[in-house]
């Protein structure tokens, strides 16, 4: 073999969707083992030639055949099964800079759940408390009404803290709260009673009218989220606090439900320890679809932009599913970089390719679906297992873990 | 005169055998008669020649055309004659052959005879010519008329010609086959002569053909193709593929190669198929390479053969049956008079002949075939195999299964009279050889290799007699025996195990560590739902963990070392049995189902109130060994609901599958070592009155009322209902540490301090089905998975080994055991490694607790 890898030349053509960084649409011949760094240099020199205004080097990422370039080009093409002899279209996008750590909110105990709306961070804690913080790191409120550890908290309206929030706990109850930023203490509006064992997860429908909870009694229960006192009080207890009973109980899982999410106003998705992800119809109260995996699922997230489901299970991998497809492989791709179980995942709200994941290896990772081999960034800082992540507010990546702290990272993504 | 002679002749002929009727024999007989015989024929011949002459005259009177005709006729005649000659020649040759046989006696007359022969032929020819010419005239007339009938006629005739030719060929074959006897040939020839009319016919036909060939137009009008051409292959009946590589197919009569007709390409073939309506009935004659269109008769024949009918159309398969010999038994004889006596009495003359033969045999005058053969064999020289004794076992009397002596080694280069120099001894070797004089058996060679110029200079071998003698001694003194040797490859003894990849799921990675204990964690127990894990440690605490997150939910302080925790299998109760020192604590951890937890509390409270009254009925023996107590308030707040104070330290507690009974083990309690307590009635009993040894561990059978009791060396199985020993398992080890029972109850795992894990198949035998020596040091914990075919073992060498242990429902199939994975994550602590091993009740996960105060979870 006289020809070494470096001697092989490949024709490439640069394309981009960011018009301000467009270069001439001419093919270049480059050594086929060119990597990201060299391509960056090439693009930057081209840009400087065409546009002398650009002084600083701009970092780009390169999309080759639907996947971000992370290895030398020839290896990448080989993996994709593409010949190096054809002209390769390389799309380049400005690399989003790493999220910057902004704040760490210290709690008294492990953080089981975190949710952000606007600038308010809602956290559920293992010391039975619910805390509200501002994203600037100011502690606002602590609620101690649960008598067992709080497993999940969520704002009722996406991005609007005025709509109230709901918390579920291992004391078998969920509580609906009303809170305004200027009020000192949230007002308990209703108690959800009906679960037989600890509640692990709660999901609010996109129109904020229905709640779905699941836990160790393997049942999925639907509740009305109406806070108004107009509806007839079903049962009064503890003064004038409304006690709600489930609208529906959906049985089907064999083991505990670890995550409930809403896909749209009528469809729920549950990830369970019994190795299945089930899709439920909230109106018909029946099972719609089912994904059977190999491991116990710990978390899941649905993207309205990508129309895809990512789920993490009791292993190192994050899997991307298309739950609507019934034929072929339901698992579209696998993201592996964590070294321990991945406890939670969350999609970006404004980018169809990005999501974050938190694992027991003390690490939060920012992923691009086009780069399954390696994450974009590792967000370190946690000293213990990461138990929850949240990206409801596009500007803030929030994670909480067993080191009693909630870490807030500011998203420096382009276009924000 | 002639006639009389011939008549005479005939009379004579009748007397002699038929075959000698031929003229040759006559010649032998008497010359005169013979001459006359031939003369008569000559006379006839002369007549025929006359008529021939007349015909010729007539011909000459005819017009020019007929002359031409004649010329061509002559030509054809010539060719015909040639052909005839050929035939005659062959026949003559045969004749000559036969003649030669006769020649020995009649040399002189040979010439005459051959002359006669030729004369004979000439006569024949002339006859033919005459008739042919007559026919010819007729032909020429026909052709002049141009009658269309003629054409049909011609084609018909042509076929006839072919047929005739075939016949002739057959006849030739026949004659040549029977060439042995000249007489026979002669007869055949005579018959040929007799059938001169037929010969004429043959001639006519060939002439016809020639006529046609001269008129070309007609030929082509008749769709006549070249297959009518006389291409006759002389290669004979051979596989024609021998000619595949050549351009020709064989050789015609003239010895010229028959060139293969050009075979068209596919397009030609296709065109032919499309255009030629008779393509389907066209076949290729392998002999000539020509295309032959099959006639209707042929087609019919083929069709009939294909249909498996009798090829001959005219054959009537269903002809009426004619009974030539009647099957009916006649009642009366066919003939009027009965069989003659002669027909069933033995013949006297034959009897006489036979008695003569018998007498001759008796006297030895004549010999039977076998006797003759024996005599002949004796007369012939005798041979025997020189080398039989060397490699074949001799048939020896009284020696059965004789073993041939081992063969001597063949001489090598060193034995050569002129060995290569490297085989010759140098000084050192010679010295060595001489040194070993006293012990010659140690020598590498029993002689010194020597070099000679030539073979003839080699002296006599001085040790010959001695060596022979030694060899004889060897053979005589050394008994030989057949040695049965079994060659088994060690690989063949190893059972074929499936690949671990096919046995998934099983724990493969460490995923969660439960940290919080301050001392060795001796025991762990997961709750039946798999949500929580209880652990007991040397730091006197019991901790409740959340499995999925590794969160310690509760810590319960006790007064002594916690040696065993066991979650109650009854899901309606939220209870953990904790063996702490010499107290057994029943703990309500207050995790999980709130209702169940509170219900457990109330149930226990009620039970204590009701039952504590009749405590007097307890026998003294039990009362002295255990005391049911209410916990103190502080303990109650910690979750401790019931407290059993034992008289010795408890090492183990185990629940019955229903969750009402539990057994505790106090190894130091001698005959009160095992105590079975009932929770609902708050009552204890001592099942054994006699101590069988130091009891290590007890277990309830998951399905039947059996109790496994492990002493130091044995496992005894007791029936709790019948109160008797069922089985005693021999572990063959020195000290049992713990055991685990398969969820189906038919298999038992026993761990021992002497590094072994024993798998007992209770249906199989009282001896271990498998002994697994996977660990380097004492095994302290074994566990079965409730759902997956997995078991695990933990040992002091810090390793946790997960194995596949498939138990089949089929009783004939033994359990399959495959070690799968070894983990060694625990840190050593005072020579302790892994203390306890437990599987997650639902997931294929395994927990291990170690001396390093941690609990580890391994997931798939």
Automatic annotation (TrEMBL), chain A:
A single cellular component GO annotation: nucleolus
UniProt-annotated location(s): Nucleus, Nucleolus; Nucleus, Nucleoplasm
Molecular functions per Gene Ontology: ribonucleoprotein complex binding
Domain NLE: 11-77
Record-annotated membrane-spanning stretches: none
UniProt GO BP: maturation of 5.8S rRNA from tricistronic rRNA transcript (SSU-rRNA, 5.8S rRNA, LSU-rRNA); maturation of LSU-rRNA from tricistronic rRNA transcript (SSU-rRNA, 5.8S rRNA, LSU-rRNA)
Family: Belongs to the WD repeat WDR12/YTM1 family.
Name this polypeptide is given: Ribosome biogenesis protein WDR12 homolog
Organism of provenance: Popillia japonica (Japanese beetle)
Lineage: Eukaryota, Metazoa, Ecdysozoa, Arthropoda, Hexapoda
Automatic annotation (TrEMBL), chain B:
Compositional bias per record (Acidic residues), positions renumbered to this chain: 30-122, 142-152, 216-230
InterPro entries (UniProt xref): BOP1/Erb1, BOP1_N_dom, WD40/YVTN_repeat-like_dom_sf, WD40_repeat_CS, WD40_repeat_dom_sf, WD40_rpt
Entry keyword annotation includes Repeat: yes
PROSITE patterns found in the cross-reference section: WD_REPEATS_1, WD_REPEATS_2, WD_REPEATS_REGION
Cellular location(s): Nucleus, Nucleolus; Nucleus, Nucleoplasm
GO cellular component: nucleoplasm; PeBoW complex; preribosome, large subunit precursor
BOP1 N-terminal domain span: 243-507
Bias type Basic and acidic residues, positions: 123-141
Ranges of Basic residues composition bias in the record: 156-168
Renumbered ranges of WD repeats: 514-555
Keywords, in A-Z order: Nucleus, Repeat, Ribosome biogenesis, rRNA processing, WD repeat
Entry annotated with the keyword rRNA-binding: no
GO BP terms: maturation of 5.8S rRNA from tricistronic rRNA transcript (SSU-rRNA, 5.8S rRNA, LSU-rRNA); maturation of LSU-rRNA from tricistronic rRNA transcript (SSU-rRNA, 5.8S rRNA, LSU-rRNA)
UniProt-annotated stretches for the region Disordered: 1-169, 208-231
Molecular function per GO: ribonucleoprotein complex binding
Predominant place of localization: nucleus
Family as reported in the entry's similarity comment: Belongs to the WD repeat BOP1/ERB1 family.
Function as written in the Swiss-Prot or TrEMBL entry: Required for maturation of ribosomal RNAs and formation of the large ribosomal subunit. Component of the PeBoW complex, which is required for maturation of 28S and 5.8S ribosomal RNAs and formation of the 60S ribosome.
Protein name as catalogued: Ribosome biogenesis protein BOP1 homolog
């Amino acid at each position: 073999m006289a020809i070494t890898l470096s001697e092989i030349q490949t024709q490439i053509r640069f394309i981009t969707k960011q018009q301000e960084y467009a270069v001439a649409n001419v093919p270049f011949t480059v050594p086929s083992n060119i990597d990201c760094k060299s391509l960056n240099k090439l693009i930057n020199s081209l840009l400087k030639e065409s546009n002398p205004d650009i002084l600083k080097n701009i970092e780009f990422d390169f999309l080759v055949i639907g996947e971000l370039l992370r290895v030398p080009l020839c290896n990448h093409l080989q993996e994709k099964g593409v010949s190096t002899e054809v002209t390769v279209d390389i799309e380049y996008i400005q690399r989003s800079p790493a999220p910057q750590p902004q704040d760490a909110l210290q709690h008294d105990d492990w953080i089981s759940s975190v949710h952000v709306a606007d600038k308010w961070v809602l956290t559920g804690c293992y010391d039975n408390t619910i805390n509200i913080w501002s994203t600037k790191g100011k502690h606002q409120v602590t609620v101690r009404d649960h008598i067992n550890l709080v497993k999940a908290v969520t704002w009722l309206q996406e991005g609007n803290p005025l709509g109230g929030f709901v918390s579920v706990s291992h004391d078998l109850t969920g509580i609906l709260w009303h809170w305004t930023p200027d009020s000192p203490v949230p007002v308990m509006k209703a108690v959800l009673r009906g679960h037989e064992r600890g509640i692990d997860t709660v999901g609010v429908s996109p129109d904020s009218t229905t709640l779905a909870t699941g836990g160790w009694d393997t049942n999925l229960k639907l509740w009305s989220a109406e806070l108004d006192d107009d509806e007839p009080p079903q049962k009064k207890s503890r003064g004038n606090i409304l006690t709600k009973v489930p609208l529906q109980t959906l049985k089907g899982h064999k083991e505990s439900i670890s995550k409930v999410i809403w896909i749209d106003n009528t469809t729920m998705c549950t990830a369970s320890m019994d190795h299945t992800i089930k899709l439920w119809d909230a109106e018909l109260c029946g099972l719609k679809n089912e994904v059977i995996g190999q491991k116990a699922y710990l978390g899941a997230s649905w993207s309205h932009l990508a129309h895809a489901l990512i789920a993490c299970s009791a292993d190192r991998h994050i899997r991307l599913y298309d739950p609507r497809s019934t034929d072929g492989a339901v698992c579209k791709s696998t993201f592996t970089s964590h070294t321990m179980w991945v406890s939670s995942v969350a999609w970006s709200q404004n980018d169809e390719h990005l999501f974050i994941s938190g694992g027991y290896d003390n690490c939060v990772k920012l992923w691009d679906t086009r780069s399954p081999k390696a994450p974009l960034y590792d967000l370190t800082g946690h000293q213990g297992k990461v138990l929850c992540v949240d990206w409801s507010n596009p500007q803030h990546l929030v994670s909480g873990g067993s080191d009693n702290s909630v870490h807030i990272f500011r998203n420096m993504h382009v276009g924000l | 005169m002639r006639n009389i002679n011939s008549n005479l002749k005939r009379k004579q002929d009748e007397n002699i055998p038929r075959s000698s009727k031929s003229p040759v024999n006559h010649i032998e007989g008497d010359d005169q008669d013979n001459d006359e015989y031939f003369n008569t024929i000559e006379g006839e011949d002369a007549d025929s020649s006359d008529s021939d002459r007349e015909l010729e005259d007539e011909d000459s009177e005819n017009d020019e055309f007929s002359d031409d005709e004649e010329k061509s006729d002559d030509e054809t005649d010539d060719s015909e004659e040639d052909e005839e000659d050929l035939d005659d020649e062959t026949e003559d040759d045969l004749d000559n052959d036969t003649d030669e046989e006769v020649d020995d006696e009649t040399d002189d007359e040979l010439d005459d005879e051959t002359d006669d022969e030729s004369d004979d032929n000439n006569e024949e020819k002339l006859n033919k010519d005459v008739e042919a010419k007559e026919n010819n005239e007729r032909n020429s007339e026909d052709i002049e008329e141009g009658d269309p009938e003629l054409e049909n006629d011609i084609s018909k005739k042509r076929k006839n010609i072919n047929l005739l030719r075939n016949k002739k060929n057959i006849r030739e074959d026949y004659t040549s086959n029977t060439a042995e006897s000249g007489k026979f040939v002669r007869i055949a020839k005579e018959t040929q002569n007799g059938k001169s009319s037929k010969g004429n016919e043959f001639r006519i036909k060939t002439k016809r053909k020639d006529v046609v060939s001269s008129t070309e137009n007609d030929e082509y009008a008749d769709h006549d193709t070249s297959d009518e051409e006389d291409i006759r292959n002389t290669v004979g009946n051979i596989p024609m593929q021998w000619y595949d590589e050549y351009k020709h197919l064989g050789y015609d009569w003239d010895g010229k190669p028959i060139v293969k007709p050009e075979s068209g390409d596919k397009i030609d073939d296709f065109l032919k198929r499309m255009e030629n309506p008779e393509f389907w009935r066209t076949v290729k004659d392998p002999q000539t390479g020509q295309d032959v269109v099959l006639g209707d008769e042929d087609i019919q024949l083929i069709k009939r053969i294909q249909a498996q009918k009798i090829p001959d159309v005219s054959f009537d398969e269903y002809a009426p049956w004619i009974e030539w010999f009647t099957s009916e038994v006649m009642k009366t004889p066919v003939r009027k008079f009965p069989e003659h006596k002669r027909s069933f009495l033995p013949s006297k003359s034959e009897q006489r002949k036979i008695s003569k033969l018998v007498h001759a045999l008796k006297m030895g005058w004549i010999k039977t075939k076998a006797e003759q053969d024996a005599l002949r064999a004796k007369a012939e020289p005798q041979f025997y195999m020189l080398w039989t004794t060397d490699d074949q076992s001799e048939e020896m009397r009284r020696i059965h299964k004789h073993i041939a002596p081992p063969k001597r080694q063949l001489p090598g280069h060193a034995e050569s009279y002129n060995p290569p120099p490297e085989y010759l001894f140098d000084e050192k070797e010679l010295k060595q050889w001489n040194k070993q004089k006293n012990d010659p058996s140690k020598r590498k060679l029993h002689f010194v290799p020597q070099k000679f110029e030539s073979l003839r200079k080699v002296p006599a071998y001085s040790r010959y007699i001695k060596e022979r003698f030694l060899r004889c001694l060897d053979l005589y003194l050394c008994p030989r025996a057949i040695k049965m040797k079994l060659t088994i490859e060690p690989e063949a003894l190893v059972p074929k195990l499936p690949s671990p990849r096919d046995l998934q799921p099983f724990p493969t990675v460490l995923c969660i560590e439960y940290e919080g204990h301050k001392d060795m964690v001796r025991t762990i127990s997961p709750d039946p739902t798999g949500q929580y894990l209880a652990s007991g440690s040397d730091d006197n605490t019991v901790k409740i963990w959340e499995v999925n997150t590794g969160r310690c939910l509760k810590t319960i302080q006790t007064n002594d070392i916690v040696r065993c925790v066991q979650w109650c299998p009854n899901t309606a109760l939220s209870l953990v049995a904790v063996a702490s020192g010499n107290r057994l604590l029943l703990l309500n951890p207050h995790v999980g189902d709130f209702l169940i937890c509170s219900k457990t509390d109330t149930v226990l409270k009620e039970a204590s109130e009701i039952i504590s009254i009749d405590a007097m009925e307890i026998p003294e023996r039990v009362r002295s060994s255990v005391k049911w107590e209410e916990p103190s308030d502080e303990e109650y707040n910690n979750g401790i609901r019931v407290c059993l104070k034992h008289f010795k330290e408890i090492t183990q507690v185990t629940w019955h599958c229903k969750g009402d009974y539990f057994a505790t083990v106090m190894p130091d309690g001698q005959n009160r070592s095992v105590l079975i307590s009932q929770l609902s009635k708050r009552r204890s009993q001592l099942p054994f009155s006699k101590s069988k040894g130091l009891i290590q561990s007890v277990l309830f059978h998951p399905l039947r009322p059996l109790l496994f009791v492990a002493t130091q060396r044995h496992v005894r199985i007791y029936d709790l209902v019948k109160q008797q020993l069922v089985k005693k398992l021999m572990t063959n080890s020195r000290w049992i540490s713990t055991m685990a029972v398969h969820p189906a109850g038919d298999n038992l795992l026993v761990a021992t301090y002497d590094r072994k894990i024993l798998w007992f198949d209770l249906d199989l035998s009282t001896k271990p089905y498998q002994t697994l020596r996977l660990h380097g040091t004492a095994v302290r914990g074994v566990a079965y998975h409730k759902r997956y075919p997995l078991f695990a073992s933990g040992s002091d060498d810090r390793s946790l080994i997960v194995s596949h242990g498939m138990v089949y429902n089929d009783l004939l199939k033994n359990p399959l055991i495959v070690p799968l994975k070894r983990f060694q994550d625990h840190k050593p602590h005072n020579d302790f490694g892994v203390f306890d091993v437990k599987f997650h009740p639902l997931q294929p996960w395994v927990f291990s607790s170690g001396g390093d105060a941690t609990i580890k979870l391994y997931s798939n």
